[in-house]
Amino acid sequence: MEFVSGYRDEFLDFAALLFGWFRKFTAKRGAGGASLEGHWRQLEAQIRRLPQDPALWVLHVLPNHSVGISLGQGAEPGPGPGLGVAGFLGDEPPLQLRDLSPYVSFVSLEEGEEAEEEEEKGDKEGAGVEKADPEEGGEPAPSSREPRQEAKPAGETEEAEQEAGGGEDDRRADKADDEAGPERRKGWRSEAAPLHLSCLLLVTDEHGTILGIDLLMDGTQGSAGKGSGTENLVPRAYALLCHSMACPMGSGDPRKPRQLTVGDAQLHRDLESLVPRLGVKLAKTPMRTWGPRPGFTFASLRARTCHVCHRHSFEVKLTPCPQCSAVLYCGEACLRADWRRCPDDVSHRFWCPRLAGFMERAGELASLPFSYTAEVTSETFNKEAFLASRGLTRGYWTQLSMLIPGPGTPRHPRGSTPALSLLLGGDPYQLLQGDGPALMPPVPPDPPRGIFGSWQDYYTWRGLSLDSPMAVLLTYPLTVYYIITHLVPQSFPELNIQNKQSLKIHVVEAGKEFDLVMVFWELLVLLPHVALELQFVGDGLPPDSDQQHFTLQRDGPEVSVRPGSGVSARLSSSTKEKGGRRDLQIKVSARPYHLLQGPKPDLVIGFNSGFGLKDTWLSSLPRLQSLRVPAFFTESSEYGCVMDDQTMAVATGGGTSPPRPNPFRSPFRLRAADNCMPWYCNAFIFHLVYKPPQGSGARPAPGPAPPVPTPTAPPAPARRRRREKKPGRGARRRR
């Protein structure tokens, strides 16, 4: 698939931006050679001519004592490709954070330090003197206790290699000799000792937008204000400030701040004579009140990338295609290259008129009844700031953004079943709460009298204010409810699904929805007469959760645990059952769907499926074809629906129904780095149209709308697309 905005972990886009900017910053800082002084004078003169930013800028000095970076076998030390930057920005970028594990991972240094202290203590008691084992070349390796040489000042070419681990070779050899086998390296992706990020320099504006970053590795610089590292920290900080003004990372044109404040007293004094060279006023006193606290968040980064060369907006100016306004390019060369790609069905010439039609749905998708709709459906939506301003920084809300919970806040880990203590607590909405008052009102005493078809109707019955953001989490159970009550009766009336007292539903290729599994409790509130069984299936689920299951019961606050068969938690909903007890059973199968064994389900549902992104769909779709069970899927864009139809045709010879907007889609617009298309979680719904059995004589169901005529020349700025539509044609025949 060409566009992965609705499927890619947003942290990967964030990391790609950070490392892309840092790589450019490192190259600029190390350039110059003999003309280094002249280079800096020229840069200072350029910055003095920049326009002034009315916002206050802050230089943060953030020490780190607990987290290290471990490089795997697929990576080499260094701030460039060694940290997987090519993988971040390449033609086939990773989609999940776990895809980076062969290259880089984060480890806790605290456990390693404790073990190292115990080992050193044993060495002292046994020998009293530490010995250095010789290396392969015969030269003795220096002891790990020897003081490290101080780093060179900013600007020298060897600096980038040293700070990224180039000076770690001796230490790593000594570490490998001293460690007592692979037990010490258990949990590390590489045999080398993890790199220590001793300090993080961060430039932001007063709103939290990140403008620049520098990493001080291995503690060679020391911490600010402790004398030994300060003389090296000053040129690093000054270089970072200059590059942040000339090339701001977050957003906007090059600019200098109205005023600058520093988060470290010693560094503030050392920069007093340097900052005025840039025409920037330094605050009289350092900033003493700021610190990482639960209510603070850095603003979402809005830097975009070129769809072809993947360069960020801080490197080049990006403009959308003049005809479809959907795809971003850095210039005419990349637009023409994408226009003429081969084969033809992957070229922009083929997709341009189709993408133009997708862009016309932006207004319809943004038509929602909430009071915050204008903010959350904007292309510049700042999700982290929105959630933080409402105190939504704990529980399931951390699963939807890059926010991390504050100290002492319990967190439901990603990719795992809910903690037993949460199930036994008797409150199914505990993980849906924020830092303020309860977000979910008590369950209405009477079941719903009618069928809900919009957020407005559901919010009114449930007693929710239209200012409540609960729709972001409840989009998953409400989408299941909409499929059961609206779509299945329309498309498969012979199933008589509305009169069934029990339903077995398979949630295939489960991902984020499994991390939010407790939100499906709302199905028991909406469908009190139905006993539901949800089986989450997918090879992306945690292996340790395979074959686990638990039952949520609505008949009281009592709790029972059944050894060997899962957990049974009775949660109070303040609703008395009239037709007997109705339970919600949750089962987990951590395997591809085509390898699942068991009885046939009543219904199959997949959220934001992306058939073209995983090869397992080429086996799972034929399995669904053989079961011929009603299967409904959501997508985050119309583009994804078209790609799913093509994949279904290749895998089975069938197709998909025309997609329809989901009235219970998430109101949050998803970030898109290389395009301007509207992406929303669960935005569209379609069902699979199976190929008729051989010899049945049945005609295949109608497929999607006919393709739009493909233009033959690249778009020009003044050219308008044609709106004529050709007459419809029959379903495509594929063998």
UniProtKB/TrEMBL annotation:
Lineage: superkingdom: Eukaryota
Compositional bias annotation for Pro residues: 701-717
Domain MYND-type residues, every copy: 306-352
Disordered, as annotated region: 110-189, 547-581, 694-735
Claim: Secreted is one of the keywords in the record: no
Keywords annotated in UniProt: Metal-binding, Zinc, Zinc-finger
Xref: Pfam families: MSS51_C, zf-MYND
Gene Ontology process terms (BP): negative regulation of DNA-templated transcription
Organism, scientific name: Zalophus californianus (California sealion)
The protein, known as: Zinc finger MYND domain-containing protein 15 isoform X1
Record-level Gene Ontology MF annotations: histone deacetylase binding; zinc ion binding
Acidic residues: bias regions: 110-120
Biased composition regions of type Basic and acidic residues, renumbered to the chain: 121-134, 145-155
Segments traversing the membrane: none
Compositional bias ranges of the Basic residues kind: 718-735
